[in-house]
């Protein structure tokens, strides 16, 4: 369950990758624009947990405010974001999902309708290593909730991975695989009440 919660912090941009020789430091304006232009995404991810273990799964995103994280494996958790809530379904439990407000997670910074990484005190790190640009962001009103470091290549902008630092200092890394942009995603993918009803029948 802790691994599922850790994943819910971030979000994805996937545009076309640029050759390494063409890459340069991406501006906060360009990254914000890429996030705001993003509509739907479906793709694979690999997660490296704080204890060194690995998980894999599929991520679905529909901006604003909706996401779904499906982990592979028997009894793997399901994480859903919709209606301003995050819900974590434990496949081994007959109880309802654990829920909490989206605004209490760093994911809210990226899933909201209008992303502005240049907002005061949101970005606490903006670096370039010659190949990738990394942006570390936090909720300026709730910095105690932890932060997310997004790693991009480009231009054009492509998110390669993200690292979540939790309140206790533990870190979880998510590496993105192939992604599909655009297209239609069924609303039920992001409907927490629909999932609860399905599991109760």
Describe the structure.
The chain is 15% helix and 37% strand. The protein contains 4 helices and 11 strands. It is globular. About 6% of the residues have low confidence. 36% of the residues are buried. It has 201 residues and is mostly beta strands.
Briefly say what this structure is:
With 201 residues, this protein is mostly beta strands. It has 4 helices and 11 strands, in the order H-H-E-E-E-E-E-E-H-E-E-E-E-E-H. Residues 9-21 have low confidence and may be disordered.
User: Secondary-structure element sequence?
Assistant: HHEEEEEEHEEEEEH
Strand order of the largest sheet: 6-5-4-3-2-1-11-10-9-8-7
Morphology call: globular
Mean pLDDT score: 85
Radius of gyration, in angstroms, nearest whole number = 16 Å
Share in β-strands: 35-45%
The DSSP helix count reads: 4
Q: What's the story with the biggest beta sheet?
A: 11 strands, antiparallel
List the helices and strands and how they pair.
Layout (H helix, E strand, L loop, with lengths): L1 H6 L20 H10 L2 E9 L5 E9 L3 E6 L6 E5 L2 E5 L8 E4 L5 H5 L11 E6 L4 E5 L9 E7 L4 E8 L5 E11 L10 H9 L1
């Amino acid at each position: 369950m802790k691994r599922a919660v850790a994943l819910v912090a971030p979000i994805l941009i996937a545009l076309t990758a640029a050759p390494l020789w063409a890459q340069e430091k991406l501006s906060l304006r360009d990254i914000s624009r890429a996030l705001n232009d993003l509509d739907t995404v479906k793709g694979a991810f690999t997660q490296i947990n704080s204890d060194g273990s690995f998980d894999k799964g599929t991520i679905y995103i529909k901006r604003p405010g909706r996401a779904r994280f499906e982990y592979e494996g028997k009894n793997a958790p399901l994480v859903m974001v919709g209606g301003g809530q995050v819900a974590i379904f434990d496949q081994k439990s007959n109880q309802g999902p654990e829920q909490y407000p989206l605004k209490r997670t760093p994911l809210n910074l990226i899933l909201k309708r209008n992303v502005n990484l240049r907002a005061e005190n949101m970005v606490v790190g903006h670096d370039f290593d010659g190949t990738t640009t990394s942006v570390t962001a936090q909720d300026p009103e709730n910095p105690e909730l932890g932060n997310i470091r997004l790693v991009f290549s480009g231009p054009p902008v492509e998110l390669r991975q993200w690292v979540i630092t939790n309140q206790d200092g533990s870190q979880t890394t998510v590496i993105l695989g192939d992604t599909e942009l655009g297209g239609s995603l069924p609303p039920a993918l992001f409907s927490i009440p629909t999932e609860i009803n399905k599991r109760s029948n």
